[in-house]
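Hello,

Our lab assistant flagged a job as stuck in the queue for most of the afternoon. It eventually completed. Since we weren't sure the result was trustworthy after the delay, we are filing this so someone can double-check. Below is the sequence as submitted and the structure that was eventually returned. Let us know if re-running is recommended.
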Amino acid sequence: MKRIFTFFIISNLFVISALAQSNFSISGIVKDNDTKQVMEYATVSLYNTSDSSLVTGLVTNLEGKFTLDNLKPGNYYVDVSFIGFKSKKIGNLVLSPSNPKIVLPVTYLGADADVIGEVEVTAIKQSVKYELDKKVVDVDKNIAASSGTAADVLATVPSVQTDIDGNVSLRGSSNFKVFINGRPSVLDANDALQQIPASTIENIEIITNPSAKYDAEGTGGIINIITKKQKLEGFSGIINVRGGIWDTYGGDATLSYKKKRFTFLLSGNYNHMGHPGTYESVMNTTLNDTTVSTINNGSKKRSFTRYNINAGIEYDITDNSFIGVSYRYGAFKMLSNDELDYQFINRTTGEEESFTNYNESLRKGPFHEFALNYGNTFKNKHELKAGVNYNFRNFLEQIDNKREDNDELIFNTKSEEKGPSSRLRINIDYTAPVGENSKFEFGFLQELSKGQDENIAYILDVNTNEFTEQNQFYSDLKNSKDIRAFYGTFSSKWKKLSYQIGVRSEHTNRTIESKNLNTTYKVKRLDLFPSTYFSYQFNDKHQMFLNYSKRINRPRPWYLEPNVIYSDANTLWGGNPDLLPEYIHSVELGWLYTFSKKGTWSNEVYFRNEQNVISFIRLPVDYQLTLQRPENVGVSNSVGLESSLSYLLLKWWNTDLMANLFYFNLKGSYQNISYDRSSFSYNFRWNNYFTIKKNTKFQFNASYSSPIVTAQGKDKYILSFDAGFRQSLLNKQLEIGLQGRNIFGTVKRQSINSGPNFDYSRVNKPKAPSIILSLSYKINNYKAKKPTFTDDGGGEF
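-- returned structure --
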């Protein structure tokens, strides 16, 4: 009897021990049924089979995987869902000591569609999806921007503002970086965004607080453009043409051919856009107890022409490795024509002078870009990526300024800036998984860039009708920059907590030489950039995240040039070789709430501290000329709340409400003059997406930006309304789109500035509305897919 009792006790102890030591879990992976791509942030909920009570829940990670662990033995079922997709229930999941781990087969989610009467309505996906360290913008949803560029798409998303000329800022900063498929663009940020057709974009990633594995350059963060790519075998493509009022027209085409392990890509685009408008400004200058007013008004017209051709080949060496090579050639041209009636009024003596000013400026230049990329995923799931990128560009800027009085030429200046620049970039990135939920990432970057600028200015002798060079404005400059960077990050997940810590080092070696000034400026600096990210998933509806990063904004080469040139008839531009880089410390705290199949609500509180703030200071030279130059004016702090609600109000009406409220404070001085400024500002957006029929969609957007202070004044409010319409035909092979921007003519850019001995105000109003008609035709099975080398989010070097 004692032996039986002893055996019973020991058996139960073994069972209890087994139950205690077993890690009962259910895991799997979620994919899109159409594209077969993994689905990040799909909601996975676990229920008790007996009473359908919710046990726990989470969202899938960046690889579409999930693991429900620390479970008790029992009978369960799993519900997998994502906005715009049919949910899927998986039942009869029994956990027991003999079956402690259940690995589900791949769960495929298909698009959700409902039929109401005679109208078939497809549920609309989120326009913006929130992930641990970025926002992902759904380009296809944005009808109002479908015939435009990347800049048009960004006009409707959180954290981004665009002005009447299409210039983009990220949370108020224009100093952000643009990446294309994870690599920095050869063009300036705004030029790059206005160069890329919206129809060629898979999605856009907004990274307001980049981690240590990203380039540390850019105060505002990173905008990463992910382009479309062929997935299925055979030939496919998409062709778009567009035309509109105000001298707007263009088109683009992307053709792909995939045969077994080879993929061939050829694409090109051409865009011409006109921006006519009116302009008024008043400047009052006081020198030597005399005040002179400069008043002008008239017309301003800008036109942008951009085109590029891209060709590439990618070869899948094995199922887990690839090599790709690509070449891109393109060019841009910006032409400005101003015709303004000027008045100079001496407020002290009452004397007046009037004339008409004609200012024509041209900026243009071609560029070439070569890229070689390699990637390999090893059997132990370690991953290696490497890339070499070389680009070359030429640049030319010409300004011709004339003054006429009763059709008689009384003044004429010309200036020219030209020079080539090039950049070589080599990167290596390695990912080493540690267990199921952790990984180390390491990387190296070597970037070498150089450029040369020559500035020449002429003035016309109206008596001899000959131009004479203005030697005081001549410069011949060479600049070079050498950046060497290393980074390391560790990320892991413990229960419901995900985190990443990392640090990046960047050594900068920069030289600027001026032959005519016989001067050389050198900068050598080693900087460390730490970052941390934390995300906690309370359940399938609530998620919070906290992150911190440090970044740098190095002055652009022309900011440092120690010379003065004309930028227009009344403005001289001067560089500042003593300019220091800006350093930015950024903290974000966020909360994401997911409505069951209806939408999401995101709230982010952010704080930014900026050292060595660079601002453009305007100072009078004489009664007609002002000098504008960049200066370090002090320290700024910004604290704000950004809220975004995306909700499916009805089966045919999806709405996005976005708000950004922030307090800005600047403390600093220049030449013993205080530039202390502070303001409370806000902007709102309301985007509405309507599915009229299965193939008929309509969009209406409204936005408002309140006044905001600058170092010497403030920019006034901007109110805008946009709309878009899209009709699909021929089984969605052909699409007709109609886009309207500034449809009520409410947009105008107004600013006021003041400083020692002057005050200045201006109003620039574009002609409205802007209407564009577009046609899009898909060939065969063209579908979007992230490129292989950016499947992890495209955020690395």
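-- support follow-up --
The delay was a queue issue, not a problem with the job. The result is valid. The longest strand covers residues 290-318. Residues 1-21, 113-124, 781-797 have pLDDT under 50 and may be disordered.
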